[in-house]
Amino acid sequence: MIEILSASALATVQDLGRVGALRWGVGTSGAMDPLALAAGNILLGNDEGAAAVEVPVFPFRVRFAQDCAFAVTGADVAARLDDEPVLPWWCTQARAGQVLNLGLPQGGTWRGSRAYLCLAGGVEVQAVLGSRSTQLRGAFGGHEGRALRQGDTLPIGISKAEPRSTDFGLVPPALALPLQVDGLPAVRVLPAAEYTRYSEASRAAFWSEPWKITAQSDRYGYRLAGTPLEAVSALEMRSHGIVPGVIQVPPGGQPIVQMRDAQPSGGYPKLGTVIEADLWRLGQAPIGSRVRFIETNWDDAVAAMAQTRRWLDEARRLVDLRRSQRGGR
Amino acid sequence: MSGDQGSISLLGTSALLFEAPGSMALHSQQRIWALAREAESWPEVREAVPGMNNLMLSFAQAPRALGELEARLHAAWGVAEPLPLEGRVVELPVVYGGAGGPHIGDVVAHTGMSIDEIVERHSAPLYPVYALGSHPGYCYLGGMDPRIATPRRKVPVVSIPGGAVSIGGAQTGVSASEGPSGWNTIGSTSMRFFDPAQDPPALLRPGDSIRFRVEKVIR
């Protein structure tokens, strides 16, 4: 069990999302940086989709009520276990009673905004409709269907990994799979149904200008600020299914990228969709920072997914290798 | 024939959207239901989710080549016969106006009708559930009297409670849980639309119908 010591809001239990419940109006939720969650689980010998704690506000502190291996992935948040520094993307052993403190995201070559506290055995809250992710709008899943509060305790599942096989890590994908344009983080976008209904100047601006992530951005969506996008003619839409990554353009012309807690349907015109392989990059982009969009096509978008998959498979191979070396002694 | 084919667009690599041609009507929506039933058996499809005169297919795994899937989808639409899902009729007692219907005055102002006329027109039809979406258990309904259509609010309301009965443009609906909304709330009901512990968790499904029964009108 771990106990939440911080009062800081907005930390939630997440896994890789609740798929298969769209027919009941239930969006997927899930980690804003699924690559960090999956990699943390790989480090700990968990299934890739085991639940973890997603932390977007710092500092954040938890106490371990039992011995437990853990990894902090995602943003580098200068973690400390009692007084000892903890490396990011590193499998570390905690003893019962120790306190883990996550500090502010660090700069350097890449600054993320969300950290994942992954635990050997995973956060063992009850799965609802096939997932442990918190469904904030529906108030179910995760821990009591809500963000974590001071004093909450989370149960830990039984670990499948050798308990003493810790102390190794991974190179974060932000460094291993970088994507930038003119020094800014970039994400690839597939044009969507209403793309051609925007003026040529607006389409050009969309690809060539930086877009600022405004303070009105959260797990539901990122509201961006830049040159307003103008439709050639008024667009009237019928409600239809949407997915995380869809870039909607409300009448004001400032786009909103749907994120993991997005509604499963919407009615605003869609300029494009941030491809699934790159959505983690946006999930890690801090409020106030700027991003660039790169136009892509189906084949390249599918290839990008395969590249992400290969990165995870390679991480699994490296971790298994380390574990077998240690276990063999 | 291409005008009748419908259009297909991408939602990234996670899903695609099929939009049926023509106007919004029950007959067309019944063909969407038929298409959904057919497409959900395809191996690359995780879910086939009806919208309003459209259908989203979410992928279990992104198909390598899209052309074959698109052709299959167009062909399936071409032969889709209306599927008359004869679902349940659920009656919802509604308190119109008052604290639970704070925007009924805006509907009065827009339509020029009295509260009683609005209530009469809103509670008269049997509303078929066309699709679920927006939030857990929420139903998109067809069949509202166009004379009480009222534009969405310029500034969305930060939060309306679960059970809020509202009008947005030519549509009406009932929110299933508390959340933001740009629609005009004209009344309230206490029905529970979603319970994750039940199977299925949503009270209603496409093909069911809602009847609003006037429990009380607060003028």
Count of structural domains of chain B:
2
The appropriate CATH architecture of the largest domain in chain B is Beta Barrel
Query: Under CATH, the topology of the largest domain in chain B is which?
Result: Cyclophilin
> Which two chains form the greatest contact, residue counts included?
A-B, 43 and 42 residues
The description of the largest β-sheet of chain A is:
7 strands, mixed, barrel
Class from helix and strand fractions of chain B: alpha+beta
Read across the widest sheet of chain A, the strand sequence of neighbours is 14-21-18-19-16-15-22
| Approximate strand percentage of chain B | 25-35%
CATH class of the largest domain in chain B: Mainly Beta
What does the overall shape of chain A look like?
Answer: globular
The number of distinct helices of chain B, counting runs of at least 4 residues, comes to: 4
Radius of gyration of chain B: 19 Å
Q: In percent, how much strand structure appears in the residues of chain A? A: 25-35%
The end-to-end span of chain B amounts to 52 Å
Helix proportion of chain B: 10-25%
The SSE string of chain B, one letter per element, is EEHEEHEHHEEEEEEEE
Number of domains of chain A: 2
Mean pLDDT of chain B: 94
The major pleated sheet of chain B works out as: 7 strands, mixed
Helix and strand content put the structural class of chain A at alpha+beta
